[in-house]
């Protein structure tokens, strides 16, 4: 089946009790049992819930994986994934990862004798050089947020596997419509479903998908034991969101290309970060492992003042954190999404005070460009 068919049907079988074509929101904490040890496959809703299960099957199918688990947030999904790592083991991480991931790893999990090395994974030789005897995971994000560095999924998987380490890819920025990391050797894909998978900016959620049975059993055990599950209602919202993922991503991608072309030529824009741009040094790699370039674009207008002017002059583009919704969102990474990393790291990564990030929505493309045009004219 094609992607759009899978998105609409995987996990979405008509309800066995009523025939409802939309999976019902099973808003229950527990399930009546027929007798001691006799149940209909559900005992307690932290362990399993039919609405969540439908979503888990759906997301797993979209990523081409066997197993999927839905969590209360993207960070809860990432935290559960790191529970595959034990004390005295080592994890290599993309140095340009989402600020919340950096915070979880460096400020919390590092207190439990897990060793992290943050390296520029866009060059596979850095990954190779960072590998140690106790390396058990390479955690990558590609493209990275907000400066759009690309990591070669196949090359990093080969290097990590040769060392006996798993590869985890945060695929939030691309969604499985534009990038399917498992096809390039990645072992585990994590998502903030809050973004493109849900797509409507109305729920926080996360997911972990994978094929290895032992690791899947452990993730499920962690999900049930620690309990950071996605609620039935939020599961239903994401399930509704993925039904239109293919259509939405096509439009996000189309408008993303048009907005990037507009920004690239604009005299007030000093630099643009967009993998679809011919000037992006990893454009060819992006073309090879992505089906499109998505709608995340960052651009530098030179100073905090200029960035503030753009952000505060935009009318249609909403000033807000987050991304991947139907509406265009615009933000200032240095003071918003990446405030939790040091100023020195921000400098090194190119997250300057003049950097603006845009998540291009699916409004009419001309309206988005007209709004950016008038906002840039105020600089
Ligand atoms: C790439 C990426 N991964 C993970 C997360 C965390 O997801 P959540 O906010 O759903 O916990 C975010 C949030 O912005 C993100 O951008």
Keywords:
379 residues, alpha/beta, five-stranded mixed β-sheet, 12 strands, binds pyridoxal-5'-phosphate
Instruction: Let me know the largest β-sheet.
Output: 7 strands, mixed
Broad structural category: alpha/beta
SSE succession: HHEHEHEHEHEHEEHHHEHEHEEHEH
Shape: globular
Query: In angstroms, what is the radius of gyration?
Result: 21 Å
Percentage of residues assigned to helices:
25-40%
Q: Give the N-to-C terminal Cα separation.
A: 49 Å
Mean pLDDT: 97
Q: Going across the major beta sheet, what is the strand order?
A: 1-7-6-5-4-2-3
Q: In terms of per-residue confidence, which ranges show pLDDT below 50 for 5 or more consecutive residues?
A: none
Give the cofactors and ligands: pyridoxal-5'-phosphate
The number of strands is 12
Query: How many individual helices?
Result: 14
Beta-strand percentage range: 5-15%
